[in-house]
């Protein structure tokens, strides 16, 4: 009897094992398209042998675990690349919004500078024509307006990036607290008792999201998973999260502080946060600086040329452009003259002279105090904007390639393959049927045994 | 080794990419421009700034030349009729100096020379577009007005300066001579000489008539010199106009090279992109429905 009962036991174990394998296959099929899902496999193991009736008998099968197949190293690489790509994307989209300001729209500085030069040229052939003088004044105003809109566009992009910093910090804080909650459920004792697959999947998804926001580094310690920013500021330690804060800094922009109040703005490199900070604190101030120095030098050069001549009434030329000394020249450059007759075209105090027009034209087309012509200085700025935007988007697509490759690798390891699961279904269906047959066979044999030498039939 | 069988994201990415290429090429073909924002080609965008400025300048220089030419040509034709008038005056003076005229015929000659004098003065006061051609840079006042206190009978109200018109980068062509260098030059005064001839004819003094006639004759040379100046200016302006026409072509070519789309190339690329796109879709259609389930018998 002992032998038959052992076989019955193995049959039952085989049924359990096939059931567990069928369950994991069906769960895999159910979650085939769930983002972040990691496929499960039922790990089966052989039971120790019995020593029965002088013979060693196989001890059947047991389900040792249902395990999620994940590759932590790949996850880490994907997180790093995602963080870099997200930074490049943020820079790229912010720079895209700047590009129209520097494209040839007819309202850009290149177009209005050309129109201004053209109107001045006309003054050379008709120095006494009041309508020509007025057109020079209008073209000067248009040029000033182009400077205003370029500077205004840069400033509003800068404050948009600033808002992005605040929003991203809020998102980071919400994610870190969610991750910490999940971490708290994944204590070592829980891990030992049951499969942490679902919680780990959720956490990996959240960590992945966190890596799009900033660069992170993950280490395992006795307290569980520890996540810090790239420069080592703690975000999560096991079940505890540390919120970042923002405060208004000296320039009116939001500074990022760690939970102890230390300013870590400059050290944040990656992710959306790093990209927004880079755009706000480095890229746009660089463009604004070039634009301001162009406005200042151009206006100073033109005013100097204007001062060298005489207006229609024979008075020495007054400053054409007004430039405030507050450093934001491009945003507030203005036309100081109120009448076309004040343009100093004359070199000999007589109204019909155009002797100073050549000097005015030279101030527009020739070199400024920096040694560059206004057009050259502006084209340099256009180049910088274009090149920054194109390199950010090139970087983004290069990183995208590497992420696609890593994600493919990750899917190869952890993704669900429907064909494979279908095969497993057939395989474990057969196994289940065979195990059921074992149980029914043993039952028949037991009945036979019980009926031996009995008048009563079972 | 396990293979990634979840190819849906890859297929979608491929389809999106070939669609994006199609869109880019279509917009290039439609707009005729390959550079719309600086990042499309930063170097070309930067060069376009200079190109736009130069194009505007060249257009303006060309317009300046045409208005300067009209001034210079008008001045030239005014001066040739002045020369004709002066030649007439010389023959009238010569006739008056031959000693055979009685006082009434001398008075008639004086009257004719007086008419010539008024003609020359009105020619010296010619305007083009409201600007006095021979007033120097003082455009406000009539260059010559009658003044009995002046020995020449007329006073010059203009100044001694001249204007140059910008017709090229750092190129300014002088386009006028002040009247003081044409009609009332201190050494060779056209108006003064004519006025003296009128007085001499009125006085009937043959010697005076003769010397006044010589003075008028020699004043022709300064007008001829001025003619030469205007002819020279017209020549310079015409040459510069030819150069600017070439420059316009060069700038337009450069602009096309920098930001224009090469239609033949774009059209070829477009048909290639269409092929890519159809191939990607055909591949997706072949691969996506593949499944082991297609080959298993339906459950009994």
Question: Could you explain how this protein is built, in words?
Answer:
The complex is a heterodimer of chains A (458) and B (300). Helix content of chain A is 60%, strand content 11%. By secondary structure, chain A is of the alpha+beta class. In chain A, the strands form five sheets. In chain A, strands 5-6-7-8 form a four-stranded antiparallel beta sheet. In chain A, strands 1-4 form a two-stranded antiparallel ribbon. In chain A, strand 5 (216-221) and strand 6 (224-229) form a beta hairpin. Chain A folds into two domains: 2-69 and 416-451; 90-372, no CATH class. In chain B, the strands form three sheets. Chain B has a two-stranded antiparallel ribbon with strand order 1-2. A two-stranded antiparallel ribbon of chain B has the order 3-4. A two-stranded antiparallel ribbon of chain B has the order 5-6. Chain B has 300 residues and is mostly helical. The longest helix of chain B is centred in the first third of the chain and has 55 residues, at 42-96. Chain B is built from six helices and six strands. In chain B, helix 1 packs antiparallel against helix 6, helix 2 (42-96) packs antiparallel against helix 3 (103-124) and helix 3 packs antiparallel against helix 4. Chain B starts with 7 loop residues before the first helix and ends in a 13-residue tail after the last helix. Helices cover 65% and strands 6% of the residues of chain B. Chain B has a domain at 50-255: f41 fragment of flagellin, N-terminal domain (Up-down Bundle), CATH 1.20.1330.10. Chains A and B meet through helix 3, helix 9, helix 10 and helix 11 of A and helix 1, helix 2 and strand 5 of B.
């Amino acid at each position: 009897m002992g032998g038959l009962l052992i076989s019955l036991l193995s049959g039952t174990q085989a049924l359990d094992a096939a059931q567990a394998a069928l369950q994991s296959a069906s769960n895999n099929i159910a979650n085939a398209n769930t983002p972040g899902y990691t496929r499960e496999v039922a790990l089966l193991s052989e039971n120790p042998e019995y020593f029965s009736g002088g013979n060693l008998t196989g001890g059947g099968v047991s389900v040792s675990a249902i395990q999620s197949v994940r590759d932590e190293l790949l996850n880490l690489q994907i997180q790093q690349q995602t963080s870099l790509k997200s930074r490049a994307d943020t820079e790229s989209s912010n720079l895209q919004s700047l590009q129209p300001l520097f494209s040839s729209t007819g309202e850009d500085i290149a177009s209005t500078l050309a129109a201004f030069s053209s109107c001045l040229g006309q003054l050379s052939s008709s120095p006494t024509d009041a309508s020509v003088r007025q057109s020079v004044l209008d073209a000067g105003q248009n040029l000033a307006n182009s400077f205003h809109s370029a500077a205004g566009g840069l400033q509003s992009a800068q404050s948009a990036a600033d808002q992005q910093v605040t929003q991203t910090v809020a998102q980071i804080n919400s994610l870190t607290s969610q991750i910490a909650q999940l971490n708290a459920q994944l204590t070592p004792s829980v891990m030992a008792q049951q499969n942490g697959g679902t919680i780990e999947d959720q956490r990996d998804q959240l960590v992945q999201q966190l890596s799009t926001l900033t660069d992170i580094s993950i280490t395992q310690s006795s307290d569980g998973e520890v996540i810090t920013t790239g420069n080592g500021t703690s975000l999560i330690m096991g079940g505890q999260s540390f919120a970042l804060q923002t405060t208004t800094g000296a320039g009116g922009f939001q500074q990022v502080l760690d939970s102890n109040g230390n300013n870590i703005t400059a050290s944040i490199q990656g992710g959306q946060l790093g990209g927004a900070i880079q755009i706000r604190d480095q890229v746009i101030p660089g463009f604004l600086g070039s634009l301001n120095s162009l406005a200042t030098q151009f206006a100073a050069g033109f005013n100097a040329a204007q001062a060298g001549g005489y207006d229609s009434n024979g008075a020495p030329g007054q400053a054409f452009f007004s430039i405030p000394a507050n450093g934001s020249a491009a945003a507030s450059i203005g036309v100081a003259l109120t009448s076309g007759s004040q343009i100093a075209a004359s070199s000999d105090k007589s109204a019909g002279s155009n002797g100073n027009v050549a000097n005015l034209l030279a101030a527009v087309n020739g070199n400024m105090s920096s040694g560059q012509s206004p057009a050259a200085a502006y084209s340099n700025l256009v180049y910088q904007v274009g090149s920054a935007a194109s390199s950010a988007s090139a970087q983004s697509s290069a990183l995208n390639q590497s992420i696609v490759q890593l994600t493919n690798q990750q899917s190869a390891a952890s993704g669900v393959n429907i064909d494979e699961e279908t095969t497993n279904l057939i395989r474990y269906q057969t196994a289940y049927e065979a195990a059921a047959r074992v149980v029914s066979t043993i039952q028949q044999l037991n009945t036979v045994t019980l009926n031996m030498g009995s008048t009563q039939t079972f | 080794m396990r293979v990634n069988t979840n190819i849906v994201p890859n297929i979608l990415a491929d389809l999106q990419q070939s669609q994006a290429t199609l869109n880019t090429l279509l917009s290039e073909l439609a707009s005729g421009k390959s550079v719309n924002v600086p990042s499309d080609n930063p170097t070309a965008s930067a060069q376009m700034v200079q190109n736009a400025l130069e194009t505007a300048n060249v257009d303006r220089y060309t317009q300046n030349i045409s208005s300067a030419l009209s001034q210079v040509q008008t001045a030239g034709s005014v001066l040739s009729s002045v020369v004709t008038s002066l030649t007439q005056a010389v023959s009238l003076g010569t006739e008056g100096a031959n000693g055979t005229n009685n006082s009434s015929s001398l008075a008639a000659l004086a009257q004719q020379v007086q008419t010539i004098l008024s003609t020359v003065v009105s020619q010296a006061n010619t305007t083009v577009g409201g600007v006095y051609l021979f007033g120097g840079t003082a455009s406000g006042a009539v260059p010559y007005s009658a003044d009995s206190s002046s020995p020449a009978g007329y006073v010059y109200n203009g100044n001694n300066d001249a204007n140059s018109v910008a017709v090229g980068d750092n190129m300014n062509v002088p386009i006028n001579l002040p009247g003081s260098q044409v009609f009332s030059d201190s050494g060779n005064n056209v108006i003064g000489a004519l006025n003296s001839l009128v007085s001499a004819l009125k006085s009937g003094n043959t010697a005076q008539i003769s010397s006044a006639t010589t003075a008028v004759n020699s004043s022709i040379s300064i007008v001829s010199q001025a003619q030469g100046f205007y002819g020279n200016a017209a020549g310079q302006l015409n040459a510069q106009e030819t150069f600017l026409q070439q420059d316009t072509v060069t700038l337009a070519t450069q602009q096309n090279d920098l930001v224009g789309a090469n239609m033949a190339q774009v059209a070829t690329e477009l048909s290639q992109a269409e092929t890519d796109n159809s191939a990607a879709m055909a591949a997706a259609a072949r691969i996506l429905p593949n499944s082991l389930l297609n080959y298993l018998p339906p459950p009994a």
